[in-house]
């Protein structure tokens, strides 16, 4: 039987200002999974030869819970908020690490790991250099895919959507919260450009002299560069994946109803075959 339901998101709740670490703009949720401990039934086995590396086995997932369209939140952003808090409580290593995939105007893809920094009522936020490869591709083709993988919990979250730049005021608020060293690093790096061996050290020395601070200083006035700021991924599709035995995983997908507003979207929720 195909499980499908179409819903309208609840009215967005109060949002919290951006913090210096990975932060939410959604209220905290109660702990319902603080004792999570997945069971791994086998380990990876590998066969190697002179010209081949072949993986013959992999961990068998055996998570105790289940997800279906009937037991997830009506909003994928709220559901992500719940899962992210559970990942933190379960001591998942770097739960804020996510794969960001972009593509050129002609469709050539590229992926890299970046840090998730904020969830607000519109979507997922990260920060970067606006002259980097990822930013150039987002300018050409303003669509992106995100992937969170929390191995310790056998969970994935996949996000697809269009992107928008944050306002200078939003980027500046976050930039001021960063340690002095990382603010200097944003000025020193011409991200994704080919550089010489001593380039970064020399550039860092230049910007330290320019702003009169050292990377090790606890305080200092280092302004936001014009070429640096945030991107927001406004989701049109979000999938939650839960590992199960025999590769019969639980998959629940949210699809935004076409024409629904960004601030209060409607979603169709389906269960997908693994």
Structural topology:
Layout: E1 4-8, E2 23-24, E3 46-49, E4 52-55, H1 76-89, E5 97-103, E6 109-115, E7 118-119, E8 124-129, H2 133-140, E9 143-150, E10 155-165, H3 168-177, H4 180-188, H5 199-211, E11 228-242, E12 250-256, E13 266-271
Parallel strand pairs: 2-7
Antiparallel strand pairs: 1-13, 3-4, 5-6, 5-9, 7-8, 8-11, 9-10, 10-11, 11-12, 12-13
Helix pairs in contact: 4-5
Descriptive overview:
- It is a single chain.
- With 274 residues, the protein is of the alpha+beta class.
- The chain has helices at 76-89, 133-140, 168-177, 180-188, 199-211; strands spanning 4-8, 23-24, 46-49, 52-55, 97-103, 109-115, 118-119, 124-129, 143-150, 155-165, 228-242, 250-256, 266-271.
- Strands 1, 2, 5, 6, 7, 8, 9, 10, 11, 12 and 13 form an eleven-stranded mixed β-sheet that branches. The protein has a two-stranded antiparallel sheet with strand order 3-4.
- A hairpin with a 4-residue loop joins strand 7 and strand 8 (124-129).
- Helix 4 crosses helix 5 (199-211).
- The radius of gyration is 21 Å and the shape is globular.
- It starts with a strand and ends with a strand.
- 28% of the residues are buried.
- Mean pLDDT is 86; it is low at 1-21 and 26-37.
Keyword list:
274 residues; alpha+beta; 13 strands; globular; disordered N terminus
Nearest-integer average pLDDT = 86
Structure summary, number of beta strands: 13
What is the percentage of strand-forming residues? 25-35%
Number of helices: 5
Describe the structure in brief.
It contains five helices and 13 strands.
């Amino acid at each position: 039987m195909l499980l499908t339901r179409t819903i309208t998101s609840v009215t967005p709740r109060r949002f919290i200002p951006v913090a210096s670490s990975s932060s939410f703009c959604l209220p905290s949720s109660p702990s319902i999974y603080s004792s999570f401990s997945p069971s791994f039934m086998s380990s990876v086995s590998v066969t190697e030869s002179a010209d081949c590396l072949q993986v013959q086995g992999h961990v068998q997932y055996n998570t105790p819970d289940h997800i279906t369209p009937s037991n997830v939140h009506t909003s994928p952003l709220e559901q992500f908020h719940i899962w992210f808090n559970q990942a933190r409580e379960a001591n998942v290593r770097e739960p804020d690490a996510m794969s960001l995939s972009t593509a050129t105007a002609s469709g050539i893809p590229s992926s890299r790991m970046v840090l998730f920094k904020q969830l607000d009522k519109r979507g997922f936020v990260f920060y970067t250099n606006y002259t980097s490869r990822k930013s150039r591709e987002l300018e050409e083709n303003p669509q992106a895919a995100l992937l969170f993988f929390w191995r310790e919990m056998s969970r994935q979250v996949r996000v697809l959507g269009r992107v928008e730049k944050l306002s200078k005021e939003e980027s500046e608020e976050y930039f001021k919260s960063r340690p002095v060293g990382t603010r200097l690093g944003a000025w020193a790096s011409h991200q994704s450009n080919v550089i010489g061996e001593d380039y970064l050290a020399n550039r860092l020395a230049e910007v330290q002299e320019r702003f009169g601070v050292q990377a090790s200083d606890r305080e200092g006035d280092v302004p936001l560069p014009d070429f640096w700021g945030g991107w927001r991924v406004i989701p049109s599709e979000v999938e939650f994946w839960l590992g199960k035995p025999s590769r019969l995983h639980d998959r629940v997908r949210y699809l935004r109803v076409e024409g629904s507003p960004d601030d209060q979207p409607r979603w169709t929720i389906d269960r997908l075959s693994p």
